[in-house]
Design goal:
Blueprint: E1 2-4, H1 24-34, H2 43-55, E2 62-64, H3 67-78, H4 99-112, H5 118-130, H6 132-145, E3 150-158, H7 163-170, E4 180-187, E5 191-197, E6 203-206, H8 215-218, H9 232-241, H10 249-262, H11 267-274, H12 283-290, E7 298-305, H13 308-314, H14 323-329
Parallel strand pairs: 1-2
Antiparallel strand pairs: 3-7, 4-5, 4-7, 5-6
Length: 334
């Protein structure tokens, strides 16, 4: 487990961070907040350490006062620093292992295998690209690293009664031809996706979906489907909204109507809309959404890419692909 004392108000009572590997909303929110603190040379490794600590059920876990302290510790961990004093859960070489911990260790070894085990590679692959919050973050990070200069310009949450405002927010276009917008959209604790918008009105949907497919699969880069064989329903949705193609005006209008309806009432209505939305029409997923309590909302954060041409050139522009696809191509799935 991972505890950050300064997060106690967001995650009461003590700031225990949710499992970032399975909670896409928390993962996306946290990565956005800590992005300025991450080291440029070990970003992926540090994020991986934080995710691993958050998903652990072993006590006492990792406990820090601030994110800055946690990132410092994770950076040292990534460097394999043997003097990692903040990692109180690490066992001294001469310390005995009791029976209870032997059971836990055997279970851990049995579930993950040894170094190089394909299951570990698949887990890390899923963490980066089939976790929707991480996929969205990775796309922004790679565009940033390529010199695209993404900057957050607005952040608004829409719910019941806000349909017209939500539709207006998703119809926004760059003010000029020299910039591109990334609409980072989040259904809290359900799904996170990116809509890339160009001045000519072209729009592209980029996403991964936890336990189902990688961003690479959705964009048609490779066949890295992370779940069982894709259904005809998800294949049909990918044909209309994915494969790296610009979404047709008609299909985009249908998407907006579905998103507005999805946050118009309760989670029951969200579930009713989900099979037609281009995310994951799986019956089990829909049933899970239907059982949620409270009122659905959609958070839309707008990032402006100040230098998309620079990023496009750095990422190997082929003259056709969207920036999101180029960014996704820029990192292997394994």
């Amino acid at each position: 487990m991972l505890i950050i004392a300064e997060e106690k108000d967001a995650y009461p009572p003590n700031g225990q961070i949710p499992n970032m590997d399975t909670d896409a909303k928390a993962c996306g929110d946290i990565l956005t907040r800590i992005e300025p603190l991450l080291p440029t040379d070990l970003r992926a490794e540090v994020i991986g350490a934080l995710v691993t600590w958050s998903e652990s059920v072993l006590k006492p876990g990792q406990s820090f006062g601030t994110w800055a302290e946690a990132i410092t510790a994770a950076t040292r961990y990534a460097h394999s620093d043997p003097a990692l004093k903040t990692d109180d859960s690490q066992r001294r070489r001469d310390q005995a292992v009791d029976d209870d911990e032997v059971v836990k260790l055997k279970a851990a070894v049995g579930s993950t295998g040894k170094t190089g085990d394909p299951q570990i590679a698949l887990r890390d692959e899923s963490r980066r690209w089939a976790n929707c919050g991480m996929a969205a973050f990775q796309i922004r990070e790679l565009l940033h690293a390529a010199g695209g200069k993404p900057a957050s310009v607005s952040r608004e949450t829409y719910g019941t009664g806000g349909g017209d405002a939500l539709k207006k927010a998703l119809l926004v276009k760059p003010v000029g031809t020299a910039t591109v917008l990334l609409l980072d959209c989040q259904f809290p604790q359900v799904h996170n996706f990116i809509i890339e918008v160009h001045h000519d009105g072209s729009r592209y949907l980029a996403q991964g979906y936890q336990g189902t497919y990688f961003a690479h699969w959705w964009l048609g880069i490779n066949d890295s489907y992370s779940s069982k064989k894709p259904t005809p329903q998800i294949l049909a949705l990918r044909e209309r909204y994915g494969l790296g193609r610009a979404i047709s005006p008609e299909d985009y209008a249908t998407l907006l109507d579905g998103l507005v309806a999805a946050v118009s009432s309760d989670w029951q209505e969200t579930a009713n809309q989900w099979s037609a939305l281009p995310f994951n029409p799986d019956r089990q997923e829909i049933d899970g959404i239907r059982r949620r309590s409270g009122s659905p909302t959609l958070l839309v954060e707008v990032f402006e890419l100040g230098k998309p041409a620079v990023a496009r050139a750095a990422l190997g522009d082929n003259g056709v692909a969207s920036l999101s696809e180029l960014a996704t191509r820029g990192m292997a799935t394994a």
